[in-house]
Design goal:
The protein is about 45% helix and about 20% strand. It is α+β, with helices and mostly antiparallel strands. The longest helix has 20 residues. The N and C termini lie far apart (about 45 Å).
Length: about 190
C-alpha cells in the first residue's frame, strides 16, 4: 500500500507558485536534476473551462459522494455547517485528478504550471477563498477512508476541512490501474 498526502494552505498566495517553480528550477539547474518531459499541453486551462467530465464509473461516483459525506461528518462533529457540493467545482477536481493520473504527476502545480486557483477561475468560478486537498492512494481498496483520515491527521488538510468560512466543495477521483487520485476543492464564492 502506498499513501501520499498534499495540502495547499487555505490562503492562496499568487506568488507562491512562482516562488516554488523558481526554487525548484534553481535546484534542478544547480544539482543537475532532470525531470522527464511531459506531453505538450495546449491551452492548459481551457480543459477546465470546457470540461464535462463525469465520474469514471459508478464505483468512483460513489467514492466521490462518500468523501463529501465523511468530510461533512467531520465538520458537523466540530460544530460547523456542512459544505454544499458544487458540480462545477467537482468537474474541476475530477479533471485535475485525471490529469495527475494521465501525466503521472502528483502535486498542486499542474503539468503546465497552473495552480488550483487558476483551474477554478478558468472554469468560470469566482472565489474569495480556495483550498485544495490531494491524496494518492495505491494498492488499497479503501481510498475514501484513507483520504479523509489522512487529511484529518495532517494540520494543513484539517485546516482546509474545518475552516468555518468554507461553504462549497467539489470532489473528483480518478483511477489509473490500482492507484486512485483524489482531489477535493473548497471555496467561498465571491458575491
Amino acid at each position: 500500500m502506498s499513501l501520499v498526502c498534499r495540502s495547499v494552505p487555505w490562503r492562496s498566495h499568487p506568488r507562491l507558485g512562482r516562488i516554488l517553480k523558481v526554487g525548484l528550477l534553481a535546484f534542478s539547474l544547480t544539482y543537475g536534476v532532470g525531470q522527464p518531459a511531459l506531453p505538450s499541453v495546449a491551452s492548459p486551462l481551457n480543459v477546465y473551462r470546457t470540461s464535462r467530465l463525469t465520474p469514471q464509473s459508478r464505483n468512483v461516483a460513489t467514492m466521490e459522494q462518500q468523501v463529501l459525506q465523511q468530510v461533512n461528518h467531520q465538520r458537523q462533529q466540530h460544530g460547523l455547517p456542512t459544505l454544499r457540493s458544487n458540480p462545477t467545482l467537482s468537474r474541476v477536481a475530477r479533471t485535475y485528478s485525471q490529469q495527475m493520473a494521465a501525466y503521472n504527476i502528483y502535486g498542486h502545480i499542474g503539468p503546465s504550471g497552473d495552480t488550483h486557483r487558476q483551474r477554478v477561475e478558468a472554469a468560470g468560478l469566482r472565489a474569495s477563498l480556495i483550498g485544495e486537498n490531494l491524496m494518492k492512494v495505491g494498492h488499497n481498496r479503501h481510498p475514501v477512508a484513507l483520504s479523509v483520515t489522512g487529511w484529518m491527521n495532517s494540520a494543513g488538510h484539517r485546516k482546509n476541512i474545518l475552516l468555518p468560512q468554507m461553504t462549497e466543495t467539489g470532489v473528483g477521483i480518478w483511477q489509473r490501474g490500482s492507484t486512485y487520485y483524489v482531489t477535493q476543492l473548497y471555496m467561498v464564492p465571491k458575491p
